[in-house]
Amino acid sequence: MPVLTGLRLLFCLVLLLWCTVAHSQPADEPAYAQANTRGAVATVHPLATRAGMDVLAKGGNAVDAAVAAAVALGVVDGHNSGIGGGAFVLIRTADGKLLALDGRETAPAKAHRDMYVVDGEADTSLSQMGPLASGVPGSVLAYEMAIEQAGAKVYADVLAPAIRLAEEGFEIDNIFAGRLARSADRLARFDGSRAVLLGPDGNPWPRGHTLVQKDLANTLKAIADEGSDYFYQGGFARAVDQWMAANGGLLSAADFAGYKVIARSPILFDYRGYQVVGFPPPSSGGVHTAQILGMLEGHDLKALKDGERYHLIGEAMKLAFADRAHWLGDPDFTQVPKALVSRDYIAAQAGRILLNRALDVTEPGDPLATAEGEPAITDEPASEQDLFFKHTTHIAAADAAGNWVAITTTVNTDFGSKVIVPGTGVVMNNQMDDFSVQPGVPNAYGLVGTEANSVQPGKRPLSSMSPTIVLKDGKPVMTVGAAGGPTIITQVVQAIINHLDLGLPLEEALAKSRIHQQWRPDMLFVEANMPAGVRQELVSRGHKLKEMGPYGSTQAIALDAQGTLIAVSEPRLKARNK
Ligand code: DON
């Protein structure tokens, strides 16, 4: 790898790890997570959490609350997510059904494998910004389906808090202002974005400004009135089609009309008497959460010293991410071997891990060698019934009736493609960058990939978003998810280990120092507060350490010993907010 590319990659990773703590932080006492006798909601923004809790108070269930919070986040935290992006919705209903609704973006019909290759070199500025960066957004339909299949309210009721926040405005907080300032020069290139996000003098709106988003309110109202048809068949699709045609984009009204949310079978994995329910491809979350936990199952993690435990966890992460780069992609376009999550393969991979030495992993594993004849992971629906229905943030919700919900949703990087299509108020995603734009060329998160994740028309880019629900004896005991590109997977794994294996209360489980290893670059990222003794244990085993400031954004809900719902939003956000 050329030195410059390597440095750029390292810089991106450092920025990524740093910026995942930089979520919304209102100045007053922020209620990021709330729980009462009706249920619980955890998000990164108090106004979104309140939107969810209000819907619960009005007779909604956890599905309604999670969607209300998700749509509200798109208004008050629109640098991370919004209806111009995609979502994975994982639900465990009170009567025990599991739904995994894949609202990931799809590549336009006119997209092609080398669309970002200019003079033989990948130009990632094209996949990250402007008209070529967006896929068809899936959140609007995924949320509608979630409400129809498992909610207690109608979509219009659940959209109401977001419409109010867009119409009446909300006060820009420190973090929103910071993200805006950082993106301002790029937002300024697009008329629609300039009109909403920059002031009349061309400067980004500052902290404390009340941001009113009339166009976004009108788009949300039209969805409330006409349902998702407005977005996929109606006025919104037409506005995008016209803007794209005039600005060199490929997305068309036909792409919108053909968009489908896919009801997939979740990845189910037994772990020390728990059943972990993860999101299947095109998320890599479920597969690699299962792999990492599975590789660790042979160890008594609680009995180990921190340094020993972090070593083993980091090694399992490394092996899993090597597989991610090679095997993972949209299962409708590429064969993702089911054997990746087979017991035999995971045991074989675990057998490679040494207690006292970090491995030099040069290649992905070979799941087909250990589990010949295992089929590919497909989008077979979980039941026949499903055939008929169908910079990132995580929403955790649960209710007293026993509905548990995990939604991870994103426009990808800050303000996605930086494009607001004029008149819509909607920030369009830059999820096309999650494809492997050229084999071996890293994306915004330093992730490399192969043909399995190449651009193809209608294909969904590989994701790290990992909404997860953990069951014990068939009943939910924990739901968790995170933001932060590839660190999403490693944050989720550590939350599960810290809470369920080490027995830490949920807040402490999320607060404990994190590590991250993603195979390439071959470095073990450790948080700055990692004790010197632990670092020494890691270095002595051959890990190359890279220190990070506090990073991550995990939201989780679990039951305490009395069976009461406990909701926690990323503890590092609160610390930064003081
Ligand atoms: O789907 C993915 O994996 C990425 N688009 C997620 C982006 C993300 O987490 C950005 N956060 N820092």
UniProtKB/TrEMBL annotation:
GO molecular function, one term: glutathione hydrolase activity
Highest taxon of the lineage: Bacteria
Binding site for L-glutamate: 104, 410-412, 434, 463-464, 485
Residue positions of the active site: 392 (nucleophile)
Signal peptide positions on this chain: 1-24
Post-translational modification (record): Cleaved by autocatalysis into a large and a small subunit.
Reactions that this protein is recorded to catalyse: an S-substituted glutathione + H2O = an S-substituted L-cysteinylglycine + L-glutamate; an N-terminal (5-L-glutamyl)-[peptide] + an alpha-amino acid = 5-L-glutamyl amino acid + an N-terminal L-alpha-aminoacyl-[peptide]; glutathione + H2O = L-cysteinylglycine + L-glutamate
Xref: Pfam families: G_glu_transpept (PF01019)
Any one GO BP annotation for this protein: glutathione biosynthetic process
Keywords: Acyltransferase, Glutathione biosynthesis, Hydrolase, Signal, Transferase, Zymogen
SUPFAM superfamilies named among the record's database cross-references: N-terminal nucleophile aminohydrolases (Ntn hydrolases) (SSF56235)
EC numbers, comma separated: 2.3.2.2, 3.4.19.13
Pathway info: Sulfur metabolism; glutathione metabolism
Recorded family membership: Belongs to the gamma-glutamyltransferase family.
NCBIfam families tied to this protein: g_glut_trans
Subunit structure: This enzyme consists of two polypeptide chains, which are synthesized in precursor form from a single polypeptide.
Protein name: Glutathione hydrolase proenzyme
Organism (species): Simiduia agarivorans (strain DSM 21679 / JCM 13881 / BCRC 17597 / SA1)
